[in-house]
Structures are given as structure tokens and as C-alpha cells.
Design goal:
alpha/beta, six-stranded mixed beta sheet, single chain, binds magnesium ion, Rossmann fold, four-stranded antiparallel beta sheet, 2 domains, binds adenosine-5'-triphosphate, 10 helices
Amino acid sequence: MLKIHKINKSFGGIKATNNVSIELKPHSINALIGPNGAGKTTIFNLITGKISVDEGNIFIGDNNITNLKETEITHIGIARAFQITNIFPTLSVKESIKIALLAKIHGLNNMWDRFSSHSVNEEASKIAELTGLTKVYNTISSELSHGDQKLLDIALALALKPKVLLLDEPTAGMGPEERWEMIKRIKELWQKTKMTVLFIEHDMDIVFDIAQTIFVLQQGSIIAKGTPKEIKKNQVVIKAYLGGGKK
Ligand SMILES: Nc1ncnc2c1ncn2[C@@H]1O[C@H](COP(=O)(O)OP(=O)(O)OP(=O)(O)O)[C@@H](O)[C@H]1O
Ligand SMILES: [Mg+2]
């Protein structure tokens, strides 16, 4: 589904991404892990076209998306959950999802004509259900709990109907209980859709619990990839990453 082939990216003298290759199978859920500064977010920025690739290629299916514009890449099928909920702080969950849906389908042309259409209402409510936001459907975004704001973020990404969903530390800043609630949701929505998911996460319990394949990054290079079982016993990973320091 998503294929990253030998990409390189340097910032000045720092090689943030060093010959990185990652291949994600259709409808798989995958984790990208590594210590702070390993280059995880940079890989997301390269995939989404936020920053340009120096060398190498990125494909979705047969489409070479390397260095296309961000909007084109989104259109081809990559979406990313950002902390963008406060783009619509005064709108309700329902209104925010509807706007994201309409922006995807028609651009912003004639948006208001379609805003109340039955199909848009129906689709928005499906997305809210999928992300567990039905109970706060009419709540103003800025009044949501931290966890629900993150879920709204994911809901807005889902409105773009992505083939591949990228989540950068979806549980950051959450307490243990809220964290597992979030993971349960992500797992559920991945199971219910045909999406391929790639998430960045520091909590290894979470990574081992839900990822089918784990990619381990260190100083810009992939040092290991495999199933949770394989990664847990991989000596290179244990030494470089699991053994000590920040989880
Ligand atoms: N736009 C940029 N300009 C210059 N340097 C950058 C830029 N983005 C990232 N870097 C550098 O690239 C390296 C990798 O950063 P990146 O943010 O990708 O790490 P990360 O693995 O996401 O870390 P964290 O776990 O802390 O989020 C770091 O040394 C960082 O300072
Ligand atoms: Mg990061």
C-alpha cells in the first residue's frame, strides 16, 4: 500500500533520514518507534509532502507521490491527524466533521448549499460513531476533553477518506486510562475500515499490543523491523532502544 524506498533527508549537517525503506501492507496497522530525535516525525513530513525528499521515492500503490504537493498527496490518499482541532474552535463536532467532508468532496465551492444535505449529515454521523464522538456530537470543539479533541483530530483526517492514516503520538499527554481508551478506538476504527495505519508511539506496551509490524528507527536509520514478538527479542533493538532510556 505505502512503499518508502531508500529515502534520504538532511537538515544542514544532520542526516535526519538515512536510506529509509518501509513497506506497509494493505489494511495493516504498523508502529514507527525510536528515541527522541530519531527522525520519526520527519518521515511523516516526507510522506505527506510537508518537507521535500532529498533522495529516494515514496509510492502509494503504483502512484509515485515523491515531492508532490501536500494537497495532491492528501487527495491520493494519505491523511494525518494533527492538533488541528482548534481550526474550528467555535464549531461543534458535527459541524467540524461536515466541513472536513465537504472540503474533501467539493473543495469549498458551494459548501453552504450542501451543508445540510442528507448524505453529508449521514456520513458525518458515521464518522462520529467510528471515532466514539457521538456522545459529544453537538459539543463545541474547544469545550471537548483532551482525549475527545484528539479523536476529533482523527475524525477530521478520516473525513478525507484516506488509504493510509498517519498518527503521530496519538496518546501524547494522556493519563493511563484515557490512553488505553484511545488505543481501543484506534484499533476499532482500523478494524472497521480498510485503511492502512502507521502510528508513532513511545509507550511500548501499546506498540506491542496493537502493531502487526514495528519499524525501529535510530538516528535516521531503520535498525529493525518485525512483529512484536520478533522485536521484543531482537538484540540490536534491546541494546539500542528497549534496554534503557526513554521508552
Ligand atoms: N524542519 C527541520 N529543520 C531542521 N532540523 C529538523 C527539522 N525537523 C527535524 N529536524 C531535526 O531532525 C532530527 C529528527 O527529528 P524528528 O522530529 O523527526 O524526530 P522524532 O523521532 O520525531 O523525535 P520525537 O520523539 O522527539 O518526536 C532532529 O535532530 C531534529 O532536530
Ligand atoms: Mg516526533
